[in-house]
TrEMBL record:
This is cDNA FLJ23731 fis, clone HEP14545. Keywords: Nucleus, Repeat, WD repeat. One of its GO terms (cellular component) is nucleus. WD repeats lie at residues 9-51, 53-95. Pfam families: WD40. It is found in: Nucleus.
Length: 176
């Protein structure tokens, strides 16, 4: 008996570069790949991601849920960007599903898999099919794009990342 489960994005093969599990709901997984897309998976449901989010303009190198506040997700990319994704329910109403300073084009393909069969008392905000909850605020954590942001780590209110510019950036207050 095999414990391996095969999940895939599309018929096209897109290399995945990073993966992280939700710290409280182990069935929720985020991945990022060569195409810069952020994919959110419910590994209990089918073999397709729940959400595909147009993210970075180049390869995504890291994706991390905040370990104690998993409504917050962080990604970094070859395009020099470092983003904070906030899917908490207390995000103020926005005129668009996404907001990210300086970026005008965003894309959301939600509910690829059927969520009607999810039987749990608390559903992750990353898996919500309620349109009122599909509000994600995206904030750039670097003042300007530089060379590739290759890696990141987050603990408590601090985030650290490393870049091809031989620089380490530390954000000490992630939450206001």
């Amino acid at each position: 008996m095999s414990l391996l489960r095969y999940c895939h994005l599309t018929g096209d093969r897109v290399p995945l570069h990073c993966v992280d599990r939700h710290p409280n709901q182990q069935h929720v997984v985020a991945t990022g790949g060569q195409d810069g897309m952020l994919s959110i998976w419910d590994v209990r449901q089918g073999t397709m991601p729940v959400s595909l989010l147009k993210a970075h303009e180049a390869e995504m190198w890291e994706v991390h849920f905040h370990p104690s506040n998993p409504e917050h997700l962080f990604t970094c990319s070859e395009d020099g960007s470092l983003w904070h994704w906030d899917a908490s329910t207390d995000v103020p109403e926005k005129s668009a599903l996404f907001h990210q300073g300086g970026r005008s084009s965003t894309f959301l393909s939600h509910s690829i898999s059927n969520q009607a069969n999810v039987h749990q008392s608390v559903i992750s905000s990353w898996l919500s099919t309620d349109p009122a909850k599909d509000r994600i605020e995206i904030t750039s954590l670097l003042p300007s794009r530089s060379l590739s942001v290759n890696t990141l780590d987050v603990l408590g209110p601090c985030l650290v990342c490393g870049t091809d510019a031989e620089a380490i950036y530390v954000t000490r207050h992630l939450f206001s």
